[in-house]
Amino acid sequence: MTHPLSKKYNCIIVEDEPIAAEILENFVSRDETLHLVAKCSDAVYAGSLLNRHDIDLMFLDLHLPVVKGFDFLKKLKKPPLVIVTTAYHQYAVEGYELDIVDYLMKPIPYDRFTKAVEKFKYLMNAEEALLEAADREHIFISSGKKQIKIVLHDIFFIESLREYIHIHTKMGTVTVKMPISRIEESLDPKMFARIHKSYIISKPKIEVRSASMIQVNGKKLPIGRTYKPSIEL
């Protein structure tokens, strides 16, 4: 029985520790859908690879020589999806401002690597969604042939990751391909507030708030600097 060729995703590894790079290369080689275009040890080389190749996924070590990982990411106009590899916990908070698929803490266990790659594949394959504002109590999101009804009172918060949004609700999380600005337009500002380029929260669901953070459903979400002046909670 022959299997149709599955889609291949081009990836690069940006890592300056040879052993860590080798481990990642080994993990990548075990996944038939991942095609390793190159390994590189600094951001300058990585930048030139991104210009020359169509890259879907970048494994990025944050502790690079010369230009640090996050500084490199901030400069990219159209970055690929990114899985961060780091030995330092504190970087995860800084990543709130950037669209990171997942964080892998070194030394990286193989099963944790596969979970991160599954997340990446899910995001690559999420269907384009169409939004239909119904009455003020719910919205319909059409994704492919499905119509997903989302009760507004069930929403905790909405999170953006590149062109996708995760709608976190009491019933679970719905992921669809749609800009966060598009769903924001259909939400009642009396009930929802945009607090960050990546987050919209439900005002009645706020549990804790401070000048820089809002907690919803046990999750601490940062308030973006540009949104502070306009937030009415």
Automatic annotation (TrEMBL):
Residues 139-233 form the HTH LytTR-type domain. Keywords: Phosphoprotein. The keyword Ubl conjugation does not apply. The keyword Metal-binding does not apply. The modification 4-aspartylphosphate is found at D61. PROSITE patterns: HTH_LYTTR, RESPONSE_REGULATORY. Residues 10-121 form the Response regulatory domain. It comes from the Bacteria. SUPFAM superfamilies: CheY-like. GO terms for molecular function: DNA binding; phosphorelay response regulator activity. This is Chemotaxis protein CheY. It comes from Chryseobacterium angstadtii. The lineage of its organism: Bacteria, Pseudomonadati, Bacteroidota, Flavobacteriia, Flavobacteriales.
